[in-house]
Amino acid sequence: MSRFQAQTTVTLDEELADLAGRLGLRESQRADLLRELADLASWVIRQAEAGRRIEARRGRDVETLRSPAVERLRRKREEGVVGRVELTDAEVERLAEILDRGFLPPPALRKALSRLAEAKRRPPRLHWKDTVA
Amino acid sequence: MPLRIEVLGRHHRALLEDFRNQHRSLVDYLRRFALRHAEKDLLARTFLAIEGKVGAERLAGYFTLATASVDRAAVGSIESLDRLPGFPIPAVLLARLAIDERVQGQGLGRYLFEEALGLTLQLAHSGPVAFRLFVTDAIDEAAARFYERFGFSRLTGEFPCRMVLDLKPLLGKR
Predict the structure, then answer these.
(1) pLDDT tens track for B72-89
(2) pLDDT at residue A1, rounded to an integer
(3) Which residues of B are less than 8 Å from A105 in CB distance?
(4) Which of A69, A85, A89, B11 is most buried, judged by most C-beta within 10 A?
(5) DSSP 8-state class, residue B79
(6) In a domain, A12, yes or no
(7) Are B135 and B163 in contact (CB under 8 A)?
(8) Structural domain count of chain A
């Protein structure tokens, strides 16, 4: 192990011990600590992936979470046109149900299809509101 | 001059600056990424709804389409795989659809959705390649309800909510 990694591991151990103390866990409860941290990190990552900014607020004080990893996720989300849509197993089950159940187009879709078939389909006339509440 | 649909190009740059929407990410995408994705990266194409005479044009809304393949994140076997076409499933992704907040509630969202659906069905029906799904990510509950009215189903309960429409039953109906 390189000197750099050794130092990093020591620092990491100290930080983990500090966090365990602050979370009321004993030093022997390393697995519980990692589970708690994984839960927290997973929430943070989910918010960042959804393109949300994470802020801590008290009164007028606002502190924004800044982290290179979170910024990478947010940027990826903002650029967000993806060629690959990945589904979890729960989503795969749901997709199988959807494709299995047969499909009766709802009224709005039937109207949309019939409007698309019209030669003279007209766009709506718009009225611009200068101010929006 | 009535509203018209144009494919986003460099000459539209000035129009993009005045676009307003309550979701910052929809404005940012249009101003920062849409043109690059259309012209440089060839990832997606954006269509603009433009109103007004030349020189006094306003951008009322836009939508972005991209191709996508729907795949599994995991590799283990699950029962429902037998009931699905093989992965990856080819799809068209309605990556963005947004209306300027000053003209919302006047039917433009429905009109642009129909445009996107029409282009997608045209491609799925007579294009050089086949597509099974029309996929979108609804940004909030109002958007999810909007897409549900057109037959989209939710795959998740969270937002952005991934939604799909099976194109297969629609292709015989045109």
Answers:
(1) 766 666 666 677 777 889
(2) 45
(3) 151, 169-170, 173
(4) A85
(5) G
(6) yes
(7) yes
(8) 1
Instruction: For residue A117, give both structure tokens.
Output: 């078939």
Could you tell me if B69 and B89 are in contact, meaning their C-beta atoms sit under 8 angstroms apart? Answer: yes
Q: Are A87 and B155 in contact (CB under 8 A)?
A: yes
What is the number of structural domains in chain B?
1
How do beta strands B133-138 and B89-99 pair? parallel
Are B6 and B50 in contact by the 8 Å Cβ rule? The answer is yes
Query: Domain containing B38: what range?
Result: 4-171
Q: What is the pLDDT of residues A54-104, one digit of tens each?
A: 888 888 888 888 888 887 777 666 666 567 788 888 888 899 888 888 888
**B83/A82 touch (CB, cutoff 8 Å), yes or no:** no
CATH number, residue B152: 3.40.630.30
Q: B81 phi and psi, to 5 degrees?
A: -60, -30
Contact state of B135 with A85 under an 8 Å Cβ cutoff = yes
DSSP strands (E only) in B44-124? 45-51, 58-72, 89-99
Q: How far is residue B103 CA from its own chain's centroid? A: 19
